[in-house]
Each structure stands twice: as C-alpha cells, then as structure tokens.
Input
Amino acid sequence: MALEERTPLTQLPGIGPAKGRALARLGLERLGDLLEHFPQRYEDRRRCWTIRQAPLEQPCCVSALVAESPRLARIRKGLELVKVRAVDHTGVLHLTFFNQAWLKNSLHQGETYIFYGRAEGPLLRHQMANPVVEPEGRREVTGRIVPIYPLTAGISQLLLSRAIRQGLDSCADILP
Output
C-alpha cells in the first residue's frame, strides 16, 4: 500500500473506526496530522533505581522481581484491583493496579519487570499505585526518554506512541 500524507489513519494496521474517531478528537485524521503531532514534554526514564534508593514522591523506574502471583480483588462494582509484591536485593515493593485485571495474567512470578511510577510510603513499606510496567529489557516505555503526548478518551500514551512510530516507519521513503 502506497502511503502519503493524505492517507487516512484508519488505513494503518491496528487503527480501526473506533480508534480513528478517538484520534480525530485530537485533530488526527490523516498520516500527515500524525507526523506533525509533537509531544508536549518528555520524561527521562533511563535511570533505574533499587527499591530502597528509589526517590519518594517523584516518578522513577524500579527494577524488581515479581515475588508472588498477582492477586485480583473486586472492591465494588466497576473497581478491580490487582496487587503484586515485587522484590530486589534491597527490599519489597507493594504494587496496586486499578482496573487493569489483565495484568493478573501478564505479570509472572519469578520474572523481572521495570515499574515506572511514584514510590511512596515509609522505608520498610514502599509502594506504587498504577505504575507503568514492562518486562525488563523491552525498553518501549522505560529505559529511555519517552515522549508524552496530549491525549483524549480512548487513546493511551502507548497507543499514540505506537501509531506515530508506525506512521513514521510507513512513510520513511517520502519524508525529506
């Protein structure tokens, strides 16, 4: 398929009508719009901390091993929590994910992940709520400088970043 700046975003793989409508709310309807949609800021996620050294009350990356299988709890109708205990050689990190039940089957005991979020709590009870998570070594949303884009309902940072990367890759031959 020959792509050009006027190509509708719904012609890109993975962008169907629903995602196309959500992207249109951001003014993104064609490939050219996507290529000119610049980040509002960047986050430096290159440095990884141990649990004990993680700075409190500011976003940071922590590399830790999932120590036990994630637990899913339904608090009330419409609110699900996934709780996970992760460890490294310096301590324990208690993680809570809100309304992300799929993580129960995605995080595996004995595997190491990078968690990016705001570490809180006393020294012996470090915790993070709703951190970004990915397997160690993937380096898609951690381990690098990450662009942060303006969003709308139905569009996540990851989806938009992937769409922009796909758009750039798809039209590399037509870009100056």
